[in-house]
Amino acid sequence: MPRKTSPKIVTSRVTQMSKTAIVLGATGLTGGLLLQKLLKDERYACVKVFGRSKLDAEHEKLQQFIGDILDLGAFSDDFLGDEVFCCIGTTKKKTPDTELYRKIDFGIPKAAAELCRQNEINTIAIISSVGANSTSSNFYLKTKGEMEQAVLEQNIPNTLLMRPSLIVGDRNEQRTGERITILLMKVFNPLLFGGLKKYRSIQADKIAEAMIVLANSENEKTMFEYNDIMQAVSS
After folding, report:
1. What is the pLDDT of residue 178?
2. CATH says 8-234 is which class?
3. What's the CA gap between 13 and 101, in Å, rounded?
């Protein structure tokens, strides 16, 4: 068995302002946009990013903690802040191994919520999926639904579960199938209204913005679908 190593910490100078945000999944589309917004937001003095590799970014607010985030508990002493934003997620194409897929999409958000409870962090915002259901026959939706249940069991006071449909934006990787779907959704989005509106595709930038708005709001609900996300960014 390989020797377990401690996470490496990469830090930058932090100015004295107010809150500390924690970001998981900053290398992804939504997570990267979220990170940019948090670094520009004057309400945050420090933004901690936890990941497997160092981001190619420098900022006086930014602190990077490098290690195996599948073992998020190893970061417990540094997992301290006011709000946690979890944008972790994978795809069947990227992660065909269902066991590893579950460790990422279920295990990391669950561990983040457990650390929130342990370290008395009162806000956690997580990207889930429209249609998430722990009893679904679809592995993806079932995993998301079980993740939501596990997070809610931690009783974090301000739990925000974002439930977007197709997330669109400028990605680094090119996905032919996804490009075709995005083009189709531009046609079908206006046809989805009423109860079907939650299935509209949505810009990653809108999700990132809504997560920050809701994290800084008093909320009476925990599940946020298309209408809720769009309302948050328009308020």
Report:
1. 60
2. alpha beta
3. 35
